[in-house]
Amino acid sequence: MQYLVNVFIFSSIGPTYESMQNVFERQSFRPAVNLSNPTITNISFTLYAVLGVVRFLVNFSFNGDCRIVYWQHEFLVWDPDECDGVTRISLPVKQLWSPDIIVYDVDDDVSQACPYVYVNHTGHIRWDRMLRLVSSCNLEIFSFPFDVQNCTFTFGSYMVSPALTFKEMSGNSKRYLEASGEWELVDILGETSILQFGIDEWDIITFWVVIKRRPVLYVVNLLIPSSFLMLIDILSFYLPPHSVDRASFKMTLILGYTVFLLIMNDLLPSTANGTPIIGIYFSVCLALMVISLLETVIITNVLHHSSMKYQEVPNWVRVVILKHIANLICYRWPEDAQLHPSVPQKDKHENTNTALPELQQICQYLGDLHAHLNSLQKENELQEQWCHVGYVLDYLLFRIYLLLISCYALVIICMWCVWISHS
């Protein structure tokens, strides 16, 4: 053993590949002069990039890069002053003993092999191993697109400890992580524990990578267009229902919103364990549009009620709608509005038996014309009264619709804020 420690001391040109053959031949043994002294492996975790997220079923795949490992090789020690000032060399990792490190909680390890390690003159070895891990994490999509995800990476070995504090690892990762992309690193947390397999004990280091989604893309492509369509639906109530086919406009708007839902379906995460609140938001918005269309159908039916047998406005409708509800919603009546039924006037052209036949015929014609004019006047009055009933109901339902949308928007905003604060 002493010969191996002093291999490089007697070299005048520095450590060479030939002078380390005795060390290479003993790569199967742990490099400790005294086997009772443990060889501790130090792990440094640095996240360089979130390469992609593949959404499917319950989980999503998380790709990231990290670098590890440090340990002490007691046989590779030399004096730089006697070796031409050489303080660090690189050696093939296959020629040296390397610690057994198992990475848990990953579906696939597609890491690129790093064939060399850096050896310091004190015997400290640094292995810059770039890991590209595909990890399955539970997808919490309730608050999408303002969601925060937590992925776990677990490293295990016989004797392992973190090379840096978890706060320093998190700071290094935030400094190196790419600013572009959908995901943003929030923090890297960790803890050390001991896992026992029978009489064997393994040291475990668990890293929690907390990342959050950048919601700008989804806000611009989903929330803002949906809000615009809802705004147009609200403004459509200002169309005069008696002269414009408001129902056709609303049906066209619902058709456009349905096409929008089909397009945005590809942007939502497809999972089986839950529904994002934004999906509920879109469904309720569609339901509100259908309710708006139903309201328009009711108002249209009321406005055209007078054309069916010229029915009178019932007295209870006058009292409930034209009086109480109109006062409640502050409906302003036109100055020439006639809300009371007209009293039929007596016919002033009464025929007498003594009138001449020509005068009797003229009076009959005048009476028919007067009756026709009275019928038209009554029809216009009935139509005007039913129009006022429709307008009052339209004002009432429009305000109820605004109240529903305002309460719904407030609930959605509060739920998102509470979820973000707890995350």
From TrEMBL:
<keyword id="KW-0813">Transport</keyword>
<keyword id="KW-0325">Glycoprotein</keyword>
<dbReference type="GO" id="GO:0004888">
    <property type="term" value="F:transmembrane signaling receptor activity"/>
</dbReference>
<keyword id="KW-0472">Membrane</keyword>
<dbReference type="Pfam" id="PF02931">
    <property type="entry name" value="Neur_chan_LBD"/>
</dbReference>
<keyword id="KW-0675">Receptor</keyword>
<dbReference type="InterPro" id="IPR036719">
    <property type="entry name" value="Neuro-gated_channel_TM_sf"/>
</dbReference>
<keyword id="KW-0628">Postsynaptic cell membrane</keyword>
<dbReference type="InterPro" id="IPR006201">
    <property type="entry name" value="Neur_channel"/>
</dbReference>
<keyword id="KW-0770">Synapse</keyword>
<keyword id="KW-0732">Signal</keyword>
<keyword id="KW-1015">Disulfide bond</keyword>
<feature type="domain" description="Neurotransmitter-gated ion-channel ligand-binding">
    <location>
        <begin position="27"/>
        <end position="214"/>
    </location>
</feature>
<feature type="transmembrane region" description="Helical">
    <location>
        <begin position="216"/>
        <end position="239"/>
    </location>
</feature>
<dbReference type="GO" id="GO:0045211">
    <property type="term" value="C:postsynaptic membrane"/>
</dbReference>
<comment type="similarity">
    <text>Belongs to the ligand-gated ion channel (TC 1.A.9) family.</text>
</comment>
<feature type="transmembrane region" description="Helical">
    <location>
        <begin position="280"/>
        <end position="303"/>
    </location>
</feature>
<dbReference type="InterPro" id="IPR018000">
    <property type="entry name" value="Neurotransmitter_ion_chnl_CS"/>
</dbReference>
<dbReference type="Pfam" id="PF02932">
    <property type="entry name" value="Neur_chan_memb"/>
</dbReference>
<comment type="function">
    <text>Forms serotonin (5-hydroxytryptamine/5-HT3)-activated cation-selective channel complexes, which when activated cause fast, depolarizing responses in neurons.</text>
</comment>
<feature type="transmembrane region" description="Helical">
    <location>
        <begin position="400"/>
        <end position="420"/>
    </location>
</feature>
<dbReference type="InterPro" id="IPR006029">
    <property type="entry name" value="Neurotrans-gated_channel_TM"/>
</dbReference>
<dbReference type="InterPro" id="IPR038050">
    <property type="entry name" value="Neuro_actylchol_rec"/>
</dbReference>
<keyword id="KW-0407">Ion channel</keyword>
<keyword id="KW-1003">Cell membrane</keyword>
<feature type="transmembrane region" description="Helical">
    <location>
        <begin position="251"/>
        <end position="268"/>
    </location>
</feature>
<keyword id="KW-1071">Ligand-gated ion channel</keyword>
<dbReference type="InterPro" id="IPR049944">
    <property type="entry name" value="LGIC_TM_5-HT3"/>
</dbReference>
<keyword id="KW-0406">Ion transport</keyword>
<dbReference type="GO" id="GO:0005230">
    <property type="term" value="F:extracellular ligand-gated monoatomic ion channel activity"/>
</dbReference>
<feature type="domain" description="Neurotransmitter-gated ion-channel transmembrane">
    <location>
        <begin position="222"/>
        <end position="350"/>
    </location>
</feature>
<feature type="transmembrane region" description="Helical">
    <location>
        <begin position="39"/>
        <end position="58"/>
    </location>
</feature>
<dbReference type="InterPro" id="IPR006202">
    <property type="entry name" value="Neur_chan_lig-bd"/>
</dbReference>
<keyword id="KW-0812">Transmembrane</keyword>
<keyword id="KW-1133">Transmembrane helix</keyword>
<dbReference type="InterPro" id="IPR036734">
    <property type="entry name" value="Neur_chan_lig-bd_sf"/>
</dbReference>
<protein>
    <submittedName>
        <fullName>5-hydroxytryptamine receptor 3A-like</fullName>
    </submittedName>
</protein>
